[in-house]
Write the structure tokens for this entry.
Amino acid sequence: QVQLVESGGGLVQAGDSLRLSCSASGLAFNWYPLSWFRQAPGKEREFVAAISWDGINRNYADSMKDRFTISRDNAKNTGYLQMNSLKPEDTAVYYCAIKQSFHSRVATTEGEYDRWGQGTQVTVSS
């Protein structure tokens, strides 16, 4: 059974940092690209960042690329999202997702991902 479990969310103040984790099980984690998406209240889910199966290629949403860093540790079957200089507008539920296609390219659209975690809430107060 494939499972993705996010953790590391919480309530922080503007300017603080958080590191989210995505722990994967039930699949060959090191074969697939990993992404983070987020969904703010009343808004559609949006792309945040993606990383290739080998960790070499990374894509970011333009508004976050200077503050967020995506990474992965394939030995631990875990992906990460380091978020710095957090802003109130970063408040959202953050989801990790895997595109379960062997060594496929990094993707940035929600529809290309077929495995999702349950999400972790990040709340940034001003």
About this structure: The mean pLDDT is 96. The longest strand covers residues 18-25.
